[in-house]
Amino acid sequence: MIRVTVVGAAGRMGREVCRAALEDPEVELAGGVLEPGSPALGSDLGELCGLGRKVGVAASEEPPEDAGVLVEFTTPEATVEHLSYGRPAVIGTTGLSGEQLARVEEAARSVPIVLAPNMSVGVNLLLEAVRRLSAELAGYDIEIVEAHHRGKRDAPSGTALLLGRAAASGRGQRLEDVAVYGREGISPRREGEIGIHALRGGAVVGEHRVILYGQGEEVEVVHRALSRRTFAEGALRAARFVAAAEPGLYTMQDVLSGTG
Ligand code: NAD
To answer: CA 238, 239, 241: angle at the middle one, nearest 5?
Structure first.
């Protein structure tokens, strides 16, 4: 049995994690933290997350005393602010800057933190496949295309960057050195570049395509998240891992391989 507190509990992901936690007999939902001034402060988390019944835990501005593991899906600014709670955490928020990532690394010296821009098991398995395809199909041109709902703030997605890093590492390169974000005007393809493109619209939960174009064939791998539930379940899996881990910064690969 683990206790979790969902930070950003009124958001798309926050509500999904609350629901998944309330439906998981091995998880106790200890609290739900909302943005200061939110009109939903004080409301019952069961009703807030759409479970359709009260569960006797109210949304609050601060985590409760016995918060357990914090599961955070908010904004980069709020995520960094919440490091001051000094609690074990699972961070799903994407779009953190280099400076914000450094703050997470610093906090992870004293508490265990999983930082995972994509919590789905499928995407995390895909990373290794992409790394290998990129290495073996050395001369192929790689393009990454992602699509998300119209409300997503950061672009490209954290997952597209993870896939890009996997592809670059398969060729012994750093993504920073080979990435091209969208193209406009006169921009012929340079040898070895990795193109990354972001589509935004409607209600798309998350789609990622990695295409390797050869002269005589094209190889394409696709991942489609059909519901946010897949991320929520991954986040709870990561929370279980963090509850038993030593201080340090972990990835979803660590969670899936059980190293901690
Ligand atoms: P959203 O806008 O629906 O929800 C974010 C919530 O954070 C909002 O309810 C907002 O009120 C709340 N918030 C903002 N500041 C806060 C604060 N100081 N304290 C408490 N709550 C605060 O967004 P979303 O679609 O739920 O996505 C949230 C983040 O999670 C984004 O960065 C998104 O890219 C990321 N995400 C990650 C994964 C993954 O698998 N890692 C999956 C989906 C989304």
So the answer is: 65
List the Cα angle 143/148/152 in 5-degree steps: 120
Write 178-183 long-range contacts (CB < 8 A, 24+).
181/156
In terms of phi and psi (left: phi > 0; alpha: psi -120 to 50; beta: otherwise), the region of 230 is alpha
Q: How far apart are CA 156 and CA 133, in angstroms?
A: 22
What residue type is 259 in one-letter code?
T
For residue range 223-233, list pLDDT tens digits in order: 999 999 999 99
Ligand 1 centroid distance, CA of 231 (Å): 12
φ/ψ of 30, rounded to 5, equals -85, -30
Lookup result for tokens 């790689």 = 142
Claim: this prediction has a pTM higher than 0.70: yes
Tokens of 155: 């672009």
The pocket around ligand 1, CB under 6 angstroms, is made up of 7-8, 10-14, 33-35, 73-75, 78, 92-95, 116-119, 154, 231
